Amino acid sequence: MAATVSLALSVLLAAQPAAPASQPEGPAPAPAADTTSAPTSARPPEPRWRGTGLLATAGVLGGIGFGANLGRVIAASRLCRDLGYDNETQSVSGIDQCIFGSTALGVLAPIGLFSNTAAFAFAAGGGSMHGRWAAHRTAFSGDRKQNAGLQIGLGAGLMTAGILTYLGVRIASFADALGFATCNERNPIVDMTGGDLGGPEVVEGNVPGFRQCMGRRMSGYLAGIGIGQTLGVVGVGLLTHGASYNRNLKLMRYITRNQLRLQPNLSWGYAGLSLSGRF
């Protein structure tokens, strides 16, 4: 009888639910962060901006700058056409406009400079943004791989040539007074040294040669300045596009190969980011 009661008591105790474990004092600890592995394809989102707007703006501003510089070249080639010799006063007429320029040159000069400077900045920004977008297309959309090395080399060469051309022509034109020093030495019409020019007949005979020389040299200097600015704009666009494309393509392929991914972890009383992948 005692054995029967003992067996029944054992079965009854075994059927009772286990007492809950004692809870530690203080706030409950935060749940463990999600440590699930990154997906096989860790594809970053496609860039929102392609840079086409910046590149288009650079093209418009560059066109305005090119037009302004072309207008300066045309105006300079005609600048000394009214240069002549006045027999009554025995002096050269129209020399001030020939040397110091016209209103058109004064207006077009800042337009060309500011337009090309802004175009340079927009081309750099647009090229970098478009290069990043193109790298994403190559890495994840099957677009043909671009020759980034060629873009970088060609862009760096054009930009360097443009900057050197611009600075070189600027310095040379300043030293030559936009051609006046050379042309007056070859066909003297203004006494700059205190010597004898050879008489009125000689000065009058030098006027046509001086006029042609000034037209060629001044327009040549201004053309060199415009070409240098244009080369700089095109070059910086190619350079930044190629550099951005090359850098971002390597980065995106590295992310994909190592399955790197940033995942948000949100829970009660905890928020953060986890970087998952193969290292």
UniProtKB/TrEMBL annotation:
- Report keywords, A-Z: Membrane, Signal, Transmembrane, Transmembrane helix
Instruction: From the UniProt entry, list the residue stretches annotated as the region Disordered.
Output: 20-49
Q: Where are the transmembrane segments?
A: 56-75, 221-243
Q: Which domain of life is it from?
A: Bacteria
Q: Which residues form the signal peptide?
A: 1-21
Q: Where is the composition biased (Low complexity)?
A: 20-43
The name on file for this protein is Uncharacterized protein
Species assigned in the record: Nannocystis exedens
